[in-house]
Amino acid sequence: QVQLVESGGGLVQAGGSLRLSCTASGRTFNPYSMGWFRQAPGKERESVAAIMWADNSTYYKYSVKDRFTISRDNAKNTVYLQMNSLKSEDTAVYYCAASLSADKYDYWGQGTQVTVSS
After folding, report:
1. What is the 3-state secondary structure (H, E, C) of 47-113?
2. What are the angstrom distances between the C-alpha of 112 and each of 22, 35, 69, 100, 115?
3. Cβ 23 vs Cβ 5: under 8 Å
4. Residue 74: how many other CB atoms lie within 10 Å
5. Which member of 2, 82, 102, 118 lies 3.0 to 4.6 Å from 88 by CB, making a disulfide possible if both were Cys?
6. Is residue 60 over pLDDT 80?
7. For range 52-71, the mean pLDDT
8. How confident is the model at residue 74 (pLDDT cuts 50, 70, 90)?
């Protein structure tokens, strides 16, 4: 079993930055990919960014591309989401997730709130 713990959320003014962290613990960790998702009130959860473990390739939702950066630190079993130039529409609960295959995400964190004030 893998446990994912997010941290780094908070309240920030529009235009500001936050860095989210997601640390994995438990079994030996070698995922297929890890991703960040978010869910705003009244909206469906959406994928924001992902990173492939084999080749470090990345994916971004179009609206965050050039503002958000996903990265990882293998030694710490940690994935980061650097969020710059934050906008009010980025306000949501952010979740990290890990997949063991291309089919689905198998493990989820508990979520961390990001609130951007305008």
Report:
1. EEEEEECCCCCEEECCCCCCCEEEEEEHHHCEEEEEECCCCHHHCEEEEEEEECCCCCCCEECCCEE
2. 10, 14, 17, 23, 10
3. yes
4. 10
5. 118
6. yes
7. 96
8. confident
Q: What is residue 1's predicted lDDT score, i.e. its pLDDT? A: 83
Q: For residue 73, what are its two tokens?
A: 């630190």
Identity of the residue numbered 2: V
Q: What single-letter amino acid sits at 88?
A: S
Looking only at the bridges linking them, the beta strands covering 18-26 and 10-13 are unpaired
Residue 27 pLDDT more than 90? no
Enter the tokens of residue 51: 């990173």
